[in-house]
Amino acid sequence: MTALLHSEWERLWKRKIVWLFLIAIPFIIIATAKYYMGRNLVVPLGNPEHTTAENFAVMAMIEQLIVVFNVVALILLTLSFTEEYRSGQLRMMMLRAYSSTQIFWAKWMAFALMMALFFVVYLLTAVAAGYILFPSAPQQVLFYYDHAVPNGDMILYTLGYYGMAYATIVGMASVFIGIGVVSRSSTAAIGLGMGFLLCSLGYPLIFDLSNRVLGLGLPVMLKYLSLSEIQFSGIAVMMSDAEALKHLHAGIWMICVIAGYTAVLMTVSRLIFTKSDRWI
Fold first, then answer.
1. CA within 13 Å, CB half, 93
2. Name one Pfam family in it (predicted).
3. Left, alpha or beta for 219 (phi > 0: left; psi -120 to 50: alpha)?
4. What's the rounded Cα separation, in Å, for the pair 254 and 95?
5. How many whole angstroms separate alpha carbon 165 and alpha carbon 189?
6. What's the whole-model pTM score?
């Protein structure tokens, strides 16, 4: 299994998208920094949206998680699962005495490790850019906090935020794998994956509108059935220290949602992927 995982890891490194994304990270960070430098001109100090050297890494992840990281995950998984199956590359691996289950989990672990690498590189680059491009502040004002936090606590908050962001990518990836194993082509897999992202983005808007206009009175936490909404605002709510939000148990709810997506879709995807008639 270790040899298979190593093989899958090497196969990912041969993908141009991996190198393009790694090379693009500094440019993405710089473009994001320029955006927030402009925002700082109109957002006063003391507002959670005001960017400082200490909170830039979090702000940079907020800005790029939904689009950049989701799209990179979608493309990588489509190339790894859909394209390799349709091109016959996976059949060649089956001839080397590896089972379809072993191949499935090796691909999944190689992808998970690659995305972890992306997150680490992005975090380190964002931290460096933050201290170079933004002024420091003695304390930080965070979203959904009743009080400012010292910079020492901001380090732990940043690490926690990136950890939860990575967890949402794992949940989103389980959806993309499910789409990938049933798609007839890479184009279809990417199209369906983008369609899911759009639906996931649209669901909270429809939920809020229906709840308000129709007076349904549904619990507000139901909008976090959307993985993209967890990525957009849910992580900050989950990590909130505000008294008004503690009764919602947001962290437990969102972790259960992410775990539910991952467990159900990975189980179904593995069953589909390992069906014997897929290899005939």
1. 24
2. ABC2_membrane_4
3. beta
4. 41
5. 23
6. 0.92
- Range 42-50, long-range pairs (CB < 8 A, 24+ positions): 45/137, 46/141, 47/141, 48/141, 48/142, 48/143, 48/145, 50/141
Euclidean distance between CA atoms 214 and 206, whole angstroms: 11
Q: How far apart are the first and last CA of the chain?
A: 23
Residue with tokens 């794998």, as numbered in its chain: 177
Instruction: Write b or e for each residue in 187-201: b if 16 or more Cβ atoms lie within 10 A of its Cβ, otherwise e.
Output: eebbebbeebbeebb
List the pLDDT tens digit at each of the 280 positions of the chain.
Answer: 688 888 888 888 888 889 999 999 999 999 999 999 999 999 988 899 999 999 999 999 999 999 999 999 999 999 887 766 655 555 555 545 667 788 888 899 999 999 999 999 999 999 999 999 999 999 999 998 888 899 999 999 999 999 999 999 999 999 999 998 888 888 889 999 999 999 999 999 999 888 888 777 788 889 999 999 999 999 999 988 777 677 778 889 999 999 999 999 999 998 888 774 454 4
The span from the CA of 26 to the CA of 52, in Å, is 18
Quote the CA–CA distance of 54 and 137 in Å, as a whole number. 7
Q: CA-to-CA distance for 252 and 249, rounded, in angstroms?
A: 6
Identity (one letter) of the amino acid at 138? Answer: P
Can you give the residue ranges of every domain in the chain? 2-279
